[in-house]
Design brief:
Layout (H helix, E strand, L loop, with lengths): L7 E7 L5 H12 L4 E6 L6 H11 L3 E5 L5 H15 L4 E4 L11 H9 L4 E5 L6 E3 L3 H18 L11 E4 H6 L12 H11 L4 E5 L1 E3 L11 H45 L1
Parallel strand pairs: 1-2, 1-4, 2-3, 5-8, 6-9
Antiparallel strand pairs: 4-7, 5-7
EC number: 2.4.1.83
Protein name: dolichyl-phosphate beta-D-mannosyltransferase
Catalytic activity: a di-trans,poly-cis-dolichyl phosphate + GDP-alpha-D-mannose = a di-trans,poly-cis-dolichyl beta-D-mannosyl phosphate + GDP
């Protein structure tokens, strides 16, 4: 019997990941030989794109998508999603090139998809999840930020900024990619909140996130400010909608009570 994960594409965006690329693709091919890999390279000046082409020439499960310049992580994933949907994949996954997302744990995400989930997030902060080689200050900032995000949006999720994910194609097809926020890396939160709000089945599985050993992080300081500003705006809108719904219910109950009393008086 076929499963959704039988047609899985793992999207790996790259920019200057020449040393990491063969390591992550090698681990992924060993851990999940049945999945296909799409490397989305943003014209890396260090030769990552050429290395990706060589890997693809040697392995039919590896595909490459070249972009003209450094267009950011959101743009890379959107290009990957669009390519994967056009090719007919039923499950599309996000994975970092730097080794922070263990390919050996991909099966945890795919098993939840096959069990009925629409979006599975590999979480650092759900029970059983952990972070390796992060300074305490960075862990506290990420943990605290995700706590704030979860409370502000009322999502019930512990790690909405996480980038290790598996999607059913139907969920991705339901999104308007042009509406996603490009502020910092907040698009990960944006996608998750839209999925929760729309009633898709969003679940988390515990993963071990390991800080990169080779190369430099692409994250800059503006990420925190830009992200939290966006989340605060969404949170205010979310709470405002909740208050409106509560008010509508209260008005309806009051109207029902008034109508009921009027009927009693007639008798």
């Amino acid at each position: 019997m076929s499963k959704p994960s039988d047609l899985t594409l793992v999207i790996i965006p790259t920019y200057n990941e020449l040393e990491n690329l063969p390591l992550i693709t090698g681990r992924l091919r060993k851990a999940a030989p049945e999945v296909d890999i799409l490397i989305v390279d943003d014209n890396s000046p260090d030769g990552t794109g050429e290395a990706a082409d060589k890997l693809a020439a040697e392995d039919s499960n590896i595909k490459v998508l070249h972009r003209e310049g450094k267009g950011g992580l959101l743009g890379a994933y959107l290009a990957g999603f669009e390519w994967g949907l056009e090719q007919g994949y039923t499950v599309l996954c996000e994975m970092d090139a730097d080794g922070s997302h263990a390919p050996e744990q991909l099966h945890l995400l795919l098993e939840k998809i096959d069990a009925g989930a629409d979006l599975v997030i590999g979480s650092r902060y759900v029970k059983g999840g952990k972070v390796v080689n992060w300074p305490k200050k960075r862990w506290a900032l990420s943990k605290g930020g995700n706590l704030y995000i979860g409370l502000a949006l009322g999502s019930g999720l512990t790690d909405m900024t996480a980038g290790y994910r598996a999607f059913r194609r139907e969920l991705l097809e339901s999104l308007n990619f042009d509406e996603l926020s490009a502020a910092g890396y907040i698009f990960q939160v944006d996608i998750a909140r839209r999925a929760v709000t729309a009633g898709w089945d969003v679940v988390e599985v515990p993963i071990t996130f390991t800080e990169r050993e080779i190369g430099e992080s692409k994250l800059d300081g503006s990420f925190v400010k830009d992200s939290l500003l966006e989340v605060t705006k969404w949170g205010i809108a979310h709470r405002g909608q909740q208050l409106k719904e509560i008010a509508d219910i209260a008005v309806g109950m009051a109207k029902f009570e008034i109508d009921n009393r009027s009927k009693k008086r007639k008798f």
